[in-house]
Write a structure and sequence with these properties.
Blueprint: H1 2-27, H2 34-56, H3 63-91, E1 101-105, E2 109-110, E3 113-114, H4 116-131, E4 136-140, H5 151-161, E5 169-172, H6 178-199, H7 205-210, E6 214-220, H8 224-233, E7 238-244, H9 251-267
Parallel strand pairs: 1-4, 1-6, 4-5, 6-7
Antiparallel strand pairs: 2-3
């Protein structure tokens, strides 16, 4: 049994180590969350060496301890698969037409140029906006390290370049994470509701405030589940998620990282399951 554990952890360590090298070669050593694969690979090799050493020294454990160890692994795997299952199925969900708002969540901007991940989100949003000309788009994202302009500004420029009228684009350029993206975007929606109710004298303020806006959140597929959960905690009751394509090489990386993001936000009370 000890030798089997040693072999399994060795295989896991090799896989994690190899994937670490692939990520570095593809997107650089500064890739977010790269540390996880480094630690996972190192942990796999250390655990393999430990179990092999115990095997060589003929150290035996009571079968109860083997059972406990296997049970812990199965429980951890069960939680992981439960979360990942929700992430996966949310990524395949369809959205209805005629949303009042599309919220495009920000992602990295290199200088003034949108990254591949952000471009995928914007192209997906553009296709929806082209099909639904009455829908207003909110571009949400502040200015981070290495970004010459805010993500919101870069997104607005990109959409205008594809022919989306400036009047249909609202910007939110203060947020630094997904939680803030959705919180601040909700404020933009509420502010527009007040403005619209003042401009339209035929519509009562009560009617305007009681209306439930149909919102579509656009992000990459791996991110849809958490984005929808965070949106619901902000009071966006009628919200759907539209997934943009993931990066093929980094898909595994993103899905594993998202597991920890979901767990963190659920425990912090930031998102509804």
């Amino acid at each position: 049994m000890l030798l089997l554990f040693s072999l399994l952890f060795l295989i896991a360590g090799i896989i994690c180590g190899a994937y670490t090298l692939i990520i570095i070669a593809y997107s650089g050593a500064g890739t977010d969350f790269l540390w996880f694969w480094i630690l996972a690979g190192a942990g796999g090799f250390l655990a393999s060496a430990l179990f092999f050493l115990l095997h060589k020294k003929h150290i035996l454990f009571h079968r109860v301890w083997y059972g406990v160890f296997i049970l812990l692994i199965l429980c951890a795997a069960g939680v992981f698969l439960l979360v990942e299952g929700n992430i996966y199925f949310a990524s395949r969900s369809k959205v209805s037409d005629n949303a009042d708002y599309v919220i495009v969540l920000g992602a990295q901007v290199r200088g003034k140029t949108v990254s591949k991940a952000l471009k995928n989100r914007l192209d997906t949003a553009y296709e929806y906006l082209k099909k639904n000309p009455q829908t207003v788009v909110i571009v949400s994202g502040g200015q981070g390290k290495g970004e010459e302009i805010s993500e919101a500004q870069a997104m607005k420029i990109y959409l205008e370049g594809k022919g989306i009228n400036e009047d249909r684009i609202l910007s939110e350029d203060k947020s630094t994470n997904t939680y803030e993206n959705l919180r601040n975007s909700k404020k933009v929606i509420d502010s527009k509701k007040i403005t619209d109710s003042r401009e339209d004298e035929k519509k009562s303020t009560v009617e305007s405030e009681s209306k439930t806006e149909k919102v579509v959140v656009v992000t990459n597929k791996f991110h849809v589940f958490r984005a929808k959960g965070l949106a619901k905690t902000q009071g966006l009751r009628s919200v759907q998620g539209l997934g943009a394509p993931n990066d093929d090489v980094l898909t595994l990386h993103y899905y594993v990282r998202e597991f920890f993001g979901v767990v963190k936000d659920v425990l912090a009370g930031n998102m509804k399951w």
